[in-house]
Amino acid sequence: MDKKKQDELKNNAAINAAKLVQPGMKLGVGTGSTIAFFIDALGKRQKEEGLELAAVVTTSSRSKKQLESLGIKVDDLSAVDRLDLTIDGADRVAANFDGIKGGGGALTMEKNVAANSVRVVWIVDESKMVEHLGGFPLPVEVLPVSCEQNFRRFEEEGLKPAWRLQAGERFKTHYGNYIIDLNVDPIPVPHGLDDYLKKTVGVIETGLFLDMCDEVIIAHADSRIENRQK
Ligand code: 5RP
Question: Could you say which of 47, 105, 127, 146 is the most buried, measured as most Cβ atoms within 10 Å of its Cβ?
Fold first, then answer.
């Protein structure tokens, strides 16, 4: 699928997701190119309908900047007890609604926002739907202090690690950590891998989003929008 077509599908899904937002909600807004379309659609609703929200929390400085540029005030997650709805993108979504996220490096905040949301909806184009998790490198955010050891252990475990790079340098997350992408494809036992990674000292968060998503809005190439609920 070419980029123009993929953007058209992302935009269709995003417009549909914006319709789920109700006045007075506490809303979580994710990160990524699909979410950039969602933020535009949200801004349009605010402008045209005067949509008022109780709170808006987001998962990256990129999304924060875009929201604020549209006049939408952004709150800190710590100031909001629980979000009613979070809309986010995803890198891969399995048939059981488990996902891989973190392609944009915002996985830690994304998981915190999702974990504190009553309802989590992902918006994707159809190319991201898979039967079993895989097809995309799994991001793992690690503390710089022990990242070399983490990388070597992952190699020994056959997890095929690669440093996430940006302009030739190690990519730094919002929290000043690094990302190691694991090239495990498919991921045979996602919960097992997540447990192992979470027990590894120095690992801050993983891009495995298991049992978190309630609904997926899928934009199909034939222009159909599918709303799949768990
Ligand atoms: C960022 C994410 C994004 O939601 C994911 O990478 C999808 O991005 P895009 O909509 O640009 O394809 O997890 O950390």
Answer: 105
